[in-house]
Amino acid sequence: MNCKYIEDLLIEYLDNNLNQEQANEVESHLTSCENCRNEYEHAKQFLHMINDIEDEQPSANLSMKFNQLLEEEKENQRQESNQFTDQKQNNYKFGEFLKYAAAILIIFGVGFLLGKNLPSTNDQSMVIASLQSDLNNMKQNLTMATLKQPTSSQRLKAVNILEKQDVADDKVLSVLVQTLQSDANVNVRMAAANALTKFAQHPLVRNAYLEALKNQKEPSIQITLINILIDIQENRAKILLEEIMKEDKSLPVVKEMAKEGIKVFV
Amino acid sequence: MILVRSGELNALSPLFEKYHLRLYNFFLRLTKNQSISEDLVQSVFRRILTYRKTYNEQHKFRSWMYQIARNVHANYYRNNKLLISDFSEPEKIEYETDSAIEEMEKESRKRILYEAMDGLQTDQKEIIELSRFQGLKYREIAEITGLSETAVKVKAHRAINKLRELYFKLA
């Protein structure tokens, strides 16, 4: 057996990074070669010594400065968001909510770690996978629960979080659709409409847009909906647009948009 | 970190608690200077805040953080190439130990080790730091440094062997 080859493996052997076969090779070589055995003891001591090095403690300044930095950044954030009306209070409430979310995530994290340490390797990946999917579900559920919060900016945030998901199951879609149809705040409805564009191929979503155009009377959301319907080439919108044209209460701008839209759906 | 990205800045505090000691020692071993190391830790967290919107949850927070830490150190190193490091005796924490001699031996081993580390090239120091002191896996280091995992492994081996050689020369 080649000593150089074994030497190259020693550190990995000491770190328990070798597969069984390689580890056996190293072990059987070590019993027969004194040189390598010395080398092994040497390396072992050295690694042990390195691992034994204790961390230095920084001065209290460090934590203090960090907290300062954080406060400054929060102040910046507050100034940016002050343009929105009732943000400050909501930030606090949303923070409360996130604390619970974080607590749950931590519990799952601990579970995940425990799962990692289970001896049976076969079950391990199963456990991890199921924990991970639980975790994702949990995140989603928490976000959806936020949509039932009393203040509009919280709901707006929740919509934005849901929007970031690449794949949405029917549950998420139906929550967003429901928000689009019946949220009390026009901005939240608008955000939901925009969030849904990503899933516009879904029949549920297309129907929701049509339904919303039929029922909603705020000009801003009407315009958004007309634009989206044109974008996704939803021909069934034509009848609704004609109705908007006939409706006396419609704003001229909206009528104009509707006229353009009708032209597109010949 | 996802919470921080979404604007919940308080969520950064637990991350600071968890990592600042390790980062501080990371910089301390690279720069040999306590106040600079504190400043560099501060810079890392400032960058984390500034670039929080660019955080991508597909990577571990830890890897991202070390990437930032490496950049911060590289910047510092570039700007202060001529500066000689002045490693004053680190402020020692008072241990309630049963054996003072044991403590002293530990301290002296540490000093020799740090001295030995000075004999390494910067990239070797860094790889020792990440793989040994910060306890990262080769895969993670590969992600942080942009090298392949095999390259990291080879480099780590060379660095550790060199360090060992230097250490026993000094000891």
UniProtKB/TrEMBL annotation, chain A:
Entry's transmembrane regions: 97-115
SUPFAM superfamilies named in the record: ARM repeat
Domain of life: Bacteria
Domain Putative zinc-finger: residue ranges: 6-37
InterPro entries in the cross-refs: Anti_sigma_zinc_sf, ARM-like, ARM-type_fold, Znf_put
Protein name: Putative zinc-finger domain-containing protein
Keywords associated with the record: Membrane, Transmembrane, Transmembrane helix
Pfam families found in the cross-reference section: HEAT_2, zf-HC2
UniProtKB/TrEMBL annotation, chain B:
Keyword flag Phosphoprotein: no
Pfam family, one: Sigma70_r4_2
Domain of life per record: Bacteria
Domain RNA polymerase sigma factor 70 region 4 type, residue spans: 111-163
The keyword Transcription is annotated on this UniProt entry: yes
BP GO terms, sorted: DNA-templated transcription initiation
RNA polymerase sigma-70 region domain residues: 15-81
Key words, A-Z: DNA-binding, Sigma factor, Transcription, Transcription regulation
InterPro entries, alphabetized: RNA_pol_sigma-70-like (IPR039425), RNA_pol_sigma-70_dom (IPR014284), RNA_pol_sigma70_r2 (IPR007627), RNA_pol_sigma70_r4_t2 (IPR013249), RNA_pol_sigma_r2 (IPR013325), RNA_pol_sigma_r3/r4-like (IPR013324), WH-like_DNA-bd_sf (IPR036388)
One GO MF term attached to the UniProt entry: DNA binding
Gene3D superfamilies: 1.10.1740.10, Winged helix-like DNA-binding domain superfamily/Winged helix DNA-binding domain (1.10.10.10)
Family the entry assigns: Belongs to the sigma-70 factor family. ECF subfamily.
Descriptive protein name: RNA polymerase subunit sigma
Organism encoding this protein: Marinifilum breve
Taxonomic classification: Bacteria, Pseudomonadati, Bacteroidota, Bacteroidia, Marinilabiliales
